[in-house]
């Protein structure tokens, strides 16, 4: 019998807000702190309306290790006649557990400290928000189950899709599987289920999840076995590409866009949506060859918001000079020429670029999981994407200092090219957005991070967030014309400095259309019995 | 300078021998003979089936990984010569193996998902007899080295989630003898799912013939490791075993193996709680046993190596002092740049334990390539095969004194002058890359291993030198 969770909500935490509002600024930003005590280390937190009461609940999956007991039944021969006895041996054992805790949303905002709990068996490998008819779904060894609240608030896993998944036999849990997408363009999430023969497509409707697959997609660019024997040194690995789901032909039905595990978007296959959850054969937008030896494909998608896809190629521009100084300068501020090609009939790249521009800085593609942000994003909410390039500031002295200081500090500055008209990019002048990436070598932790993360006022524009130094979080509101004030619109002082910037997440946890901040605090000490606290800073300011 | 001197010495010492076949050049070095064969292509795989059986070579066109293959044999009697056995073999073939299917040893060609017999080992040909088609089969998964030796009684392959082994069915075909599930760890990468099983090794007997396989580790938290032991005698029955690290550590390299008949994991780790940029490597030997508590038992040996965390280490369990107990041998680069090579031997004390003090030798040569070999002398003792400073050298590993390497080389000969070229390096953030810079590339010399090829006692040492166009030259050094 486990002790009830010691979860509590703090009324207030030290919070300082400095509003540097300009003249026409709407209501100030505000973040309300609260805190949830967790039984283990949080793996994923999802905002869902599980009980369909119109309030968003917070579903948290935690992982923990603790001592427990297991009973082992054995047959023992007790005499020479062959008589057998059943013996039950109870031994202490370390048990690895996962638990789902659902904290109900409160009418006044925030979440209840007490949670409804469900121990997740090891056969559950991912939990994700589903369609309205099945708000919380779990991928298991044997398919997909729905988390259903029963009488008395008891949670249960109810199988909805039966299919032996590729997760079977694994003990892994995927924090962000990204297997729920709107695959038919009806606005509700549908599911992809990885099975041995490909990806099963299951559509949802108002009644719930379709138990029968609408189709099975053969995954292009899969690598079941490596071509190079050296890859076996780390053990056998199977690599199954999963698609980005984007409308690329303007029919409001999303296509599936796959890329191989190596070479990024230079090995890509596109499957057109044929409706009703079925997809066409794979098409190579590059027609079997990269644009040129010098050019790399860095992005594919709808750049100008017309529903049709473009392809962005980048050619590195070499600088003159072979000196170390020149090479360092180029590493800090690399120059590239971007060529934007439309995808023509059959999704093939039009060889003639529709636009060209030269940029300075790194264009880090989305979903690259690099600690340095950048890439392409709709910063001003007009449906057209901006280009965000990052230039670095580091020195050889800093690299040498890292050996003694046990930390590396790399400054970076952002430059934005705004797309006010389709495919016409103009640099945004007067930006003073800088950041610093501090890598603590003694803890393998990221200390500071800045990015265009979240929309804290719900105006559809991305805000600029600087984590650190220390307990400080500064939010610069996104304004018209892709501008950001150099002074922060809100400065939040966290209760304690995060151990690692990666333990800070910016998401809309309460489903109010405004981003929130969550900081995970892990208990010091051993893996066994380790607990954690989730500190939430929920947006409360008026829109 | 040292390389130039060595090359000059090589030129002086080398005396062409009479009688070598076309494409093969034989030169003499003190106490040794160097046989150099121009392969007219890139070496894909090599097989040394038995003493006196020569060396079978699978060769593809340089720069065409999937180009058509040529099968050749390097014979040694009466004089070394390279003979072509078959041409126009499929570019899908990536490995060679020998197995006895009931009517004598046959040569098996393996690719991704396919195995075919190329006929009797004594006279293989171009026509392949299908043996097996299975999407998860690649013989290199358990035998990644290009050089393979011996005739197997089983062919085994691992893929993510499964280990399978096939034996002869008595009718010239293969039957599935072992089918075991392997644990998997799944990660969601930006591009999709990575489904990985831990490294697998045959833990007893000859490669592929072992009745026991060990797969591991899978990290469970920061201090516990889980391994799977597959019993080939019982059709692949799998059992779970646990081991405990001394503290929070992450596994960088692992070698599942058997030590004195019991499964173990040898792992190289680094600290997980704190990261020290200049931290030395940590080596642990972890006994694997069924453990109902799942807590795992502590290492039987836990030491630090004089090697920084960015270097690769090689480990071998073998009986170096001929006392009937297996010793632990580790070879690793030392220093920031890793220019020196260090070999250490911990003598086995029996029962899976080791003496705490290690014998050690420092090899002061810029080792461009090296590997530990299980059989380096007539007695079957282990050794180190190193290529550097224009020489290929096979040295026995010893234990019992303070040194880990025998004073003199078992075999040594100059290497043909390796080409050097200008390579390119990249810098960048994530997948966003920037300008390239030039640097001198290391010579392309790869020691292949040591194997019994001719009728003379003792194994021969093998290496491949790759030319600028990608053409390989095979170098075999044997006793004169």
> In what order do the strands lie side by side in the largest sheet of chain B?
1-2-37-36-35
Largest sheet data of chain A: 9 strands, antiparallel
- Output the number of helix runs of chain B: 1
Give unreliable regions of chain B as ranges.
Answer: 1-19, 419-443
Largest interface: A-B, 75 and 68 residues
Q: What's the mean pLDDT score of chain A?
A: 84
Question: Please, what is the average pLDDT of chain B?
Answer: 86
The parts of chain A where pLDDT drops under 50 for at least 5 residues are 1-23
Shape of chain A: globular
- What structural category do the secondary elements of chain B indicate? mainly beta
Strand tally of chain B is 37
Using the alpha-carbon principal axes, give the shape of chain B: globular
Rg of Cα set of chain A: 26 Å
Quaternary structure: heterodimer
> Mind summarizing the main beta sheet of chain B?
5 strands, antiparallel
Residues in β-strands, percent of chain B:
over 45%
